[in-house]
Amino acid sequence: xVQKQYGIVLCVxxxxxxxxxxxxxxxTDCIYYFxxxxxxxxxxxxxxxxxxxxxxxxxxxxxxxxYYNEDHALLLENYFETYAVPxxxxxxxxxxxxGSYLVGNTSILxxxxxxxxxxxxxxxxxxxxxxxxxxxxxxxxxxxxFKTLGFGRISVSAFIDGFHMxxxxxxxILLALLSLTRDEKTILQKGGAFIVVVAFMFLxxxxxxxxxxxxRIPFLFSKFIALCAIVFGLIHMKSFLxxxxxxxxxxxxxxxxxxxxxxxxxxxxxxxxxxxxxxxFFTIGKTEEVFNLLSTVFSRxxxxxxxxxxxxxxxxxxxxxxxxxxxxxxxxxxxxxNKAQHKNVPEHKLDKWHDHYKRVLQFGxxxxxxxxxxxxxxx
Length: 379
What we know:
It is a single chain. With 379 residues, the chain is an alpha/beta fold. It has two domains: 2-142, Glutaredoxin; 149-378. The chain has 15 helices and seven strands. The protein is elongated, with a radius of gyration of 33 Å. The termini are far apart. The model is unreliable at 12-25 (pLDDT under 50).
C-alpha cells in the first residue's frame, strides 16, 4: 500500500515537472521592452528579459534600443503619451503590454513574470489603448539620451578631458614650439593654428571620421613626450647659464644646416599644424565617456543636427588649457617688451635688455616644461 502511494506521488511530481514548462512555453503574450546599452539601470532587467524569452517560448518579446535609435525613441514617447505615464516618471527600463505597463527595474523584476502568467490577451500593446493599468518602480534612467547629457555634465567632462595626461602632453608640445619661436609677432598666429588643428582632429574623432588608438598607445605617447620634455627643458635651462657653442662646433656643418632647415619648418605655421595633427592622432583615442557617448549618438541615430553643436561645444571647453597657455605666453612676451622699453637706458641698449628679459622668460617656460614632463612621467 505504501509503495502504491509513493508511486502515485511520483507520478504527480513527474506530471507537474512535465506540464508546467509546457504551460509556460504556451504563453502568447506580446511584450515591448525599452532599454539601452548605456542605460545604467537596465543591465539586470536586460538579463531578466532574456531569461523570460527562453522560458516563455510562445511569448513575443521585442526589445527596443532607445538611446541610439531615433525611431525607437519616438515610439517610446508615443507609448508614454498613450499610456498616460507621468512625465516625471518617464524612463527606462520600461515594459508595455496590452492594457498595462511597468516602468523601473524594481517593478519589472518583481511583477512582469506574474503579469505574463495571468494575462490572457495575446494582442501587442496598442497606441489606441483606453483602459490602462501601470506600475512605476524605482531604478530608472532617463528615457532620452539627451536628458543624460546636460550642459553641466558635458562641461565638466570636457574640462576633465582637457587635463588628461595625453592632453597635457599636447600642451607641452605647444609650449615647446612657442619657446622656439623667435618672431613675437607670429606667436598668436602659430599657436592659434596649432589649437585649431587639434580641435579639428577631435571633431573628426567626434563624428567618427578619424578613429583613435586604444588606451595603451596614447598612454605610451604621453610617457614619450614626458621624457622629451625633461630633456628639452634641461638642455634649454642650461643654455641660460652656459652656451652650447663648444658642443655645436663639434657637429658637422652639413648636419647643422639641415637641422636649421628642419627647425625653421617646424616653427613655421605649417610646422605647428603638422605637429598638431601628429600629436592629436596619438591623443584622440583617450577621451571621457561623455565624448564617446556623443560620438556614438551622432553615428547611430538621426540626431546629427542636435549632436553636432554639442560636440563642438565639448571640444571648445576641452581646448581651454591650450588657449590659456597661448594667451599667457603672449602676455609674457608683451610684458617683457614693455618692461624693456620702460628701462631708463640709452636707445642702443634697449635691445640688449629686451633680449635679457626674453631669456629670463624662456628660462621660466623651459622650467615649466621640465616640471610638466616630470609630473607626466610619474603620473
